[in-house]
Amino acid sequence: MWLTSSSIGRKFVMALTGAFLVLFVTFHVLMNGVALFWPTAYNAVCEFLGANWYALIGTAILAGGFILHILYALWLTYENRRARGNDRYAVTSRPKQVEWSSKNMLVLGIVVVCFLIVHLFQFWAKMQLPEVLGLEGEFPGAAGTLFIQKAFSCPVTLIVYLIGFGALWLHMTHGFWSMCQSSGLNNGVWMNRLKTIGTVWATVVVLLFAVEAIVFTVQAKRGYYTSNEALIEQYVEMAPACNCEGCEGCESCDECGCAAGKCAESCHRCATLAKIYAVCVEGCAVSACDSSACGDRNASDSVSDNFNEGTF
Q1: Where do the domains of the chain lie, and which CATH numbers do they carry?
Q2: Could you tell me the pTM of the whole model?
């Protein structure tokens, strides 16, 4: 088959699947920008995407492209080393400035994949995946800022992300112009231009990622995502309705006349607000959110303390 037997075909497949990475990181850095400057809008976008069919199709396409890119890279490396020792598949013109990254694309790719696995575990596996499987997650999938708070409350997260961003920059600065070259844009004039464009694009994207991660860490340390009143209002709206006997679908326990003794720990909405968000709402009388607590503490203090005490 031409795509697997010829050098041009192999490079074309790598270029095509690598384009998924280009699209993903560009979209992702813009999404992070929304979380940075307008966190309530970020949660709204998370709710809009959720487990909708178009989001699932987009996720499947991106995931398929990533997986194919990774598997094809591993297979190419194996085939080329078996046929030509340690040489990679050849390219017709290789700028000296990217010589190191060109020779170490597999290693850089593995680091990027490891970083991606960590990122997916912290966010996608806890936001979208539970919705797809019909399971109840730690937080509602739309509460994206709570996942940011939890992930970046750990200082190790920032270190891991910065290392991942560094590998991503090296991988993309070579991969961008290599992708364009494999698509036929390989004359001397355009290769220099594409190399510059690729380097500028990768640098801007990675710098934005780094700045966003640093700001997220600072904001998480301050408890911003658990103390902002606008976000608190969103969290309350996201909490599921009561589902205890006689209270199904109620927005608060007293709406159905459910007394504290009857609903207490079993009223889903009250328990969720109290245990997860530590937000007190009228009608919720559970151990972590009784009437005295509601009178003595406000929602933002409760949520911040809950995170700071390591409840999650």
Answers
A1: 2-226 (1.20.1300.10), 246-308 (no CATH)
A2: 0.72
